[in-house]
Write a structure and sequence with these properties.
The chain is of the alpha/beta class. The protein has 8 helices and 5 strands.
Amino acid sequence: MTNSIQSIALDKLEFHPDNPNQQSRVNFAKLVHNIERTGRYEPLVVRPCLGKAAYFQIINGHHRWRALSKLGYETADCIVWDIDDDETDILLATLNRLVGSDELGKKLNLLKRLNKKMATGELSKLLPQTTKQIEQLTNLKRPSAPAKMSAKCFANPLVFFVNDRQQEQIEKALSLIEEPKAEMTNASKRAAALADIAQVFFNIKKLNRGVSHNG
């Protein structure tokens, strides 16, 4: 195994047929834009193709290959690993999945710092978040509780991201919930509706357990 970076012609790189990682059209466009803007990208991870001299199979970097090809690159920076099929399968299943989660405070600070130098619309072309998500995050404020006041009086921020299909399903579910009080803010209404959906889910689970036990 070698960790040295090599420049390999794109037409000498082959996709692994069992690569499970898929990227949305929007995120692929952002990847292309980032490489075009900076000329930088993480080297691809490849291995020699058995029986095909000077050819390599991509283990990690399929979308980077597509982006480089779209931008007219003829070669890609690659790290060559000499590994067998079993190890390759393990890497295909893990390299794009072993990721951590953002610490909210640091994430907000980073986004706000970037937002001072770059408009939200421009940031959305580079980051995974949409313009609306960036605006929501940069405007998010953590409540600070006055002295001698119960913590139950304050809302807890719950930030997560969904794809277009998931958002459509969630919006449909929220629209079916009984309309909350008119004086509530839009955010409060959505939070109350989401809590109602969660309660219905728990009730169904409890009912199913009861039927199962009685049966």
